[in-house]
Amino acid sequence: MFREWVSRSLQRRLLVSLLLGVGLSLAASQIIVDQIVDRYIVSSFATAADAAEQRDRLQRDIDFILLGGVVTVLAVSAFITIVSVRRGLKPLGAATAAARALSPGHPAHSLPLTGLPSEIRPLGECINELLEGLAGALERERRFSADLAHALRTPLAEIRALAEVSADERREAPELRQFLGQIASAAVGMQAVIESLLAVARADRAAVRNALEPLQVAPAVAARIERLRVTNAVDPGRIAARVPAEVWIQSDPRLFDALLLNLLTNAVQHGDPRKPIEIDWLAPSGGTALRVRNGAPYLSPEDLPHLTERFWRRAEREQPSAAGGLGLGLWVVAGLCRVLDLSLTFDLDAEQRLSVCVGGFRGI
Amino acid sequence: MKLLLVEDSARLSAALVAGFRGEGFAVDHAADGRAALRHLEVHEYDLLILDLMLPQVSGLEVLRALRAAQTPVRVLVLSARDQIEDRVTALNLGADDYLLKPFDFAELKARVLALLRRRYGELSGRLTCGDLTLDTNARVAATRGAPLPLTPKEYALLETLLRHRGRSFTRAALFERLYDGLSDASDRVIEVVVSTLRTKLDRAGLPTLIETRRGFGYRVP
User: Which residues of A230-251 are buried (b: 16+ CB within 10 A; e: fewer)?
Assistant: First the structure.
């Protein structure tokens, strides 16, 4: 439909232009012929009557030739115009058909650019770039949804199985209490996944307008450890926090807390449970940094670049963990660092201790 | 019936072990693929419940090793991986069934029982011996239509002997089939279970169902 409309519209315009041109040429030719006849032919006859008769005859012949030629030219031109316009618009028709085949479910197609008129080609290229970006974004989201569904299936299976087994009337009270505790723990795990994702989503939205305010680091760290202790997520005796009381920074308290939560949860879930988790405030030359260090016997230096990938876990080496980390914590940390304009570095020392350093805080 | 549960989630394992033990199964648990392979080298299992994403050695590698060694154990894969290709790969590698997480425990139990029936060539889900009938789906016994109340271990012992009629089982072999690796009991507990079972069968009018063959063990002729 679109293609037909375009071609017909163009054809109409071209035909009108052609007719106008031919009409104007005809009028101009008529004037020129009159001038020639008057100046060179009429003057050569002896009598005015002969001259008038000869002039009329000559003029009729010329008019006939001109009109016939014009009609012929017009017909041929119209035919050529229609054929050339249709041929010229054929690539546009193919692009229209390809565009019609695009759908939200299949955005990976691109418009065919071969044969497109040079005036339309840049537009096609722009649309293709847009489609490519859209397809990439949709694929990433599809993969993320699949990963997330996978990540939530296990805690959901835990909750269902524990609840169903608890329904057996032969269960004793201590066993039931233990199962209920495990259900609560699995629910906390699911909550952590959802909160982590929300933290990044909100942070992305607030990227340019996060409100920085004075924040005392030591109490913020202590409060976060206490909240983790209350939810049984961590044994506070395992954490050694060494942050001087006088350290104040400019930061967004909510995002800073999310940063701490994910740093510590990651250390608890993926770190060596026999080794302490150390939190230190460092003051490298001209800057400030928060370092969280934990034992990581299953990591190798080659793993460090992967630590901020979503759902990445050193699965084939990692010890079985009741905490059930999903591999989201450091991805969230990286997202928060980006929003807060902080640096994030990793280091694995000779004693197999992983240091996660968040730097670039604005001191007060 | 003895199961091996290979699952790295401690919470899910706790629930499943408790659930299957409550049904009278002996259940061993391995938290990673390597431990699963060690269990399979040492013990004989009727069925393996296998997660795919395992630390150290993946579930698929366990399956591959198992089938390469031509171990006849039935394998039910229990996984959060929901893609068609994951299921196809697992089934092609020799899994007998594939159940997606989260699942209903009743469905898991039904699938386990179906696989066990298939393993022992049963079609009806019933084992009969004279007046005695075992419903292997409901895991209950009856004599002449009247319920015969049995403990899970008594039922499991009777089911084992009926499934392998004519075959003698030593005390140690029965202990191996009926108790999991973490059990504190010794194989003498089998004598106690046989004794209580015989008493119940005697009361139900089946005094000679379980024979003792000196030097060979127990059997149902």
Answer: eeebbeeebbebebeeebebeb
Range of the domain at A46: 2-101
Amino acid letter, residue B203: R
Q: Is the dihedral of CA B116, B120, B126, B128 positive or negative?
A: negative
- B1 min Cα distance to partner chain A (Å): 19
User: Minimal Cα–Cα distance from B54 to chain A, Å?
Assistant: 7
Instruction: Kindly determine whether residue B100 and residue A153, on different chains, have CB atoms separated by under 8 Å.
Output: yes
Q: Is residue A289 part of a domain?
A: yes
B9 and A315 within 8 Å at the Cβ level: the answer is: no
CB-nearest partner of A161 from B8, B12, B32:
B12
Q: What is the pLDDT of residues A147-170, one digit of tens each?
A: 677 778 888 999 999 999 888 888
B21 and B110 part of one domain = yes
pLDDT at A26 over 80: no
- Tell me whether A149 touches chain B (CB under 8 Å): yes
pLDDT tens, residue by residue, A259-310:
898 898 888 878 888 889 999 998 877 678 999 999 988 888 888 888 887 6
Out of B67, B90, B119, a domain closes at B119
Total number of domains constituting chain B: 2
Domain edge (last residue) among B96, B119, B142: B119
Q: B13 to chain A, minimum CA–CA distance in Å?
A: 8
The residue among B5, B12, B60 with the most chain A CBs within 10 A of its CB, best to mutate, is B12
Burial class (CB in 10 A: 0-12, 13-18, 19+), B127: buried
With beta carbons less than 8 A apart as the criterion, state whether A148 and A197 touch: yes
Any bridge partners for residue A213, and if so which? A251
Q: Distance of CA A113 to CAs A18, A102, A108, A124, Å?
A: 30, 15, 15, 7
Are B108 and B137 found together in one domain?
no
Is residue A169 less than 8 Å (CB to CB) from chain B? Answer: no
Residues B12 and B91 reside in one and the same domain = yes
* Residue A208 in this model has a pLDDT that exceeds 50: no
Beta strands (DSSP E) in chain A are 213-216, 239-242, 248-251, 277-282, 289-295, 343-348, 353-359, 362-363
Residues written for chain A = 364
A174 touches chain B (CB under 8 A): no
CA-based nearest residue to B155, from B202, B201, B221, B204: B201
Is the minimum CB–CB distance between A187 and chain B shorter than 8 Å? no
A168 touches chain B (CB under 8 A): yes
Q: Which two tokens stand for residue B207?
A: 């005094």
- Kindly list the residues from chain B whose CB atom is less than 8 angstroms away from the CB atom of residue A162: 11-12, 14-15
The verdict on a CB contact (< 8 Å) between B18 and A157 is: no
**What is the rounded distance in angstroms from the CA atom of residue A317 to the CA atom of residue A270?**
11
What is the ipTM metric for this complex?
0.71
- Give the tens place of pLDDT for each residue, B101-131: 999 999 999 999 999 888 877 777 788 888 8
Q: Looking at beta carbons, which residues of chain A come within 8 Å of B32?
A: 320
CATH code for position B173: 1.10.10.10
Give contacts of A168 with chain B, Cβ < 8 Å: 19, 22
A170/B101 CB distance under 8 A: no
